[in-house]
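Exam revision sheet. Question 4 asks you to relate a sequence to its structure. Input first:
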Amino acid sequence: MRTVLGCIADDFTGATDLAGLLARSGVRVSLRIGVPSAPPKDGAALEVIALKCRTSPVDDAVAEVMAAYEWLNAAGAQNFFWKYCSTFDSTDEGNIGPVAEALMDAIGTDQTIYCPAFPENGRTTYMGVHFVGRQPLAESPMKDHPLTPMRESDLTRLLAPQVKRTVGLVEHACVAKGSEQIERKLAQLHDQGVAHVIIDAIAGEDLIPIAKATRNMPLITGGSAVAAPLPDLYLKEGLIAADAMRPPSPSLARKSVILSGSCSAMTNAQVAHYQTTGAPSYQLDPIELMTSGRDGVLAWLSKQDLGKAPLIYATASPTSVHEVQEKLGVEVAGKLIEDTLAACAIVARDLGVRRIVVAGGETSGAVTKALEISQLDIAEEIAPGVPWTFCQSKGEIVALTLKSGNFGNENFFADALNKLDT
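Answer key, structure tokens:
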């Protein structure tokens, strides 16, 4: 099947977020973990390639994305989507802007949009200023992100140092007038030489005219929400065939485990709430892992009743995270946690666990790599932007959900496990 939309995501949870929203259409969505080594074969109409390049050096990130683009281009994709976090996670150097410009050059287009807004999850943009809930981005918990601390709320100012071409804005007053007005504004900006266009969105209803106005652009960039209307538009236009719909989900054993490496404010709340249910839990300490290794947590896991979905977590307050990073270094502390949770995933699978919940982008990357997962089929959404997926690991079908740190409500972990039984 020819690929209609080829998507590239800068981290694994962001890829499942995007794939989950695309799957709301009922169309089969294939999520690839990394660039496939084999040429395209039996692809889906909607293909997503998950990379781990959000915080990579710029040149490395661009090279990874270009390899993904070449694979999707060979699969027949005519339209491309560059997906990054709805909080625009980046530094002054990138990687959002440099990757977008590299894709523009490869595709042969001289304008693209940036729409990270995800109103359903509280991410909105007004007059170019991005909000997390009621807080401007630079005043939100994202200001303390350990890898990409966000200290600027105006997206035009955030993007400008990352790109070589001119940055502009489509304000909400234009968006509110509908897709035709958006198209006219984009054309005007194009004539003025504006290549990079931030688009305001303050409600879910804003995303439909934005998608309509930009659906034929060779490259769209943004958070996942602006891509969500695209499959239905493609179906209506006959670009996606009726036989491209996703198959029913398999039934799996109830043994489960929850692995949380995220230290976001919401994941902190989710861990605390899940602990009130009485489920067994184990907190990882990076300093202890450095001195004593991971045998303790693996032994603990092997003794648990896996029908009770034990939780293993490294979640901590920003102050605690900073203290650990001061002692061990950012990369060392992060890798200790990622590698330990990945080892836990392997042990859990070998103990018969077939339902695995993972919180945190870096952790998700480590777990999928450890389980040797190369492709996932997207199933039901648990929360906005967080679906269950089904994949194969060591010959076994496994249900896996990869949750971005700030997504979901406080009851997410229990909701996720209950979703598979409905």
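Marking note for examiners. The radius of gyration is 21 Å.
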